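task queued by scheduler; priority normal; single chain, no ligands, no partner chains; default sampling; output format set to C-alpha cells
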Amino acid sequence: MEKGSQMKKSTEGSGSFLRSLKAVFGALTGAAIECAWVAPLLMGIGTTAYLLVPAWFSRADNFRIVTFGTLTGLGAWIFLVLLLSFVVARPGSDTASWDLASRRRDDLQRRLKAYKAGNKSVAEARVDVARLMDPDFTRPGQRWATHMGYIAMWEGIHHAEEALVPVLSTTGLWETVQKALLQLDGATRDLSTRLGDVLDGVAGFLATRAARGKAKAPRQADKNCGSVKISSEDDARGRLREVISALNSFRDQQWSGLVRLRNQTLTALSMTGLSAFGLLVLAILCNVDSKMITAGITFFLVAAVVGFLSRLMTLSSAGSAVDDYGLQSARMLLVPVVSGLAGLGGVLLTTILFNQSLTSLLELAESTSPLPILSKVFDLSKSSVGIIVAILFGYAPTLFQARLDALVESYKTAITSTESAQRADSAAPGRHGKA
C-alpha cells in the first residue's frame, strides 16, 4: 500500500512538473511570436548606435559593428520576451474578451448541473464545456498570443449553447427565437434570406402551440407564419438549432477574419522590419560612408513620421464599436516601416529619373553615362530636396490602406448587423461574446 501511494505521488509530481514545463515553454513561444516584430527594430537601433557613436566602437571594423549591434538587439529582445512571456501569452491577455467568455462558460457550467445525465444534447454540451475548462486549453501559449484561442473559446461556447436548444424550456425557446429574429433584422440580405423562412416557420409553430394552450405569445410572433412548415416540436427545436448554429458560425467567421488579418499584419511587420535591417547591414558591410547612412536614416524617419501621422488622422475620423483584437494597432505599427522604406526608395528613384533621360535608362547596358553617385543622392547638404521627396513617398503607402480598410469594415459591419439582439443585455456593445 505504501509503495503504491508513493508511486502515485511520484506520478502526480512528475505530471505537475511536466504541465509547468509546458506552460513555461508555451508562454515563451507565444511571447516570442507576439514580439517578433520588435527584434529587427532593436537590432537596427543597436547597430546604428555602434556605427554612429565613435566612442562606443571602432569604425574600422564594419563586420564587428554589425555583429555586436545584432547581438545587442537580440539580447534586448530576449529580455523583453522573458519579461512579457506571462502577459501576452496567457488567456487573460485580452481582459475584456476573456472576462466575457469565462463568465459565459461558467454560466453554461451552472446551467448544465440542472440537467439530468443521459440526455444526448446535454452530454454534447458538457463535452464542449469540459474542453474549455481543461488546463491544457487554458495553458499559456501561442493560441492566446495570436488571439486565436479566444475564437476557439467562443466557438466552443456557441456550440454548447446550440446543443442545449433541444432541451430548453418553452420560455427559453421563445427568448432564443426572439433574439434570433432581432439578429436577422439587421443581418445581411443573404443571411436573412437563407434563415428567415426557417425562423419564421419555427416562430409560427410556437405561436400556434401557444394559442392552443391559451398562452400569450410574444407580439412579434403573430406576424411570423413562414413558408417552412414545422411538423412537430422536435422538428421546431432542431430547425431552431440549425438557425442559431448558422448565425453563430457567421459571426465567428467574421471575428476569425479580423484576428487572421491582425496576425498577418504582424507577420508582414516582422518581414518588413527585417528587410529594413537588411538594407542597413548591407550598407555597412559595403563600407558606405556614415554620412550617407545618416542621410538614409533621416529620409527613412521623415517618411515614417509622415505615414504614421497620415494613418493617425485617418483613424481619428473612423470610429467603430467593434473590438478588433488589436488589428488597428498592428496596422499602425506597420505603416511607419512601409512608409520609411517607400520614402527611402522614392528618394533614390526620383534622383535617378531626374539625372538620366528615359532613353539612357532604357539603353542602360549600352549607355556610357553613369548613374548618379550615391554620395550625392544620400547627402543632406547636396540633396535637400530629398526631404520633400521622402515626405511625398512616405504618404503614398497610406493610400493603399483604403482597400484593406474596406475589408476590415466589411467584417465589422457583418458583426454589428447581427448583434442587435444583445444590446439590451450587455454593457459592452461590439464584443464577440454577445453573439
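post-processing summary
- The radius of gyration is 30 Å.
- Residues 288-414 form one domain.
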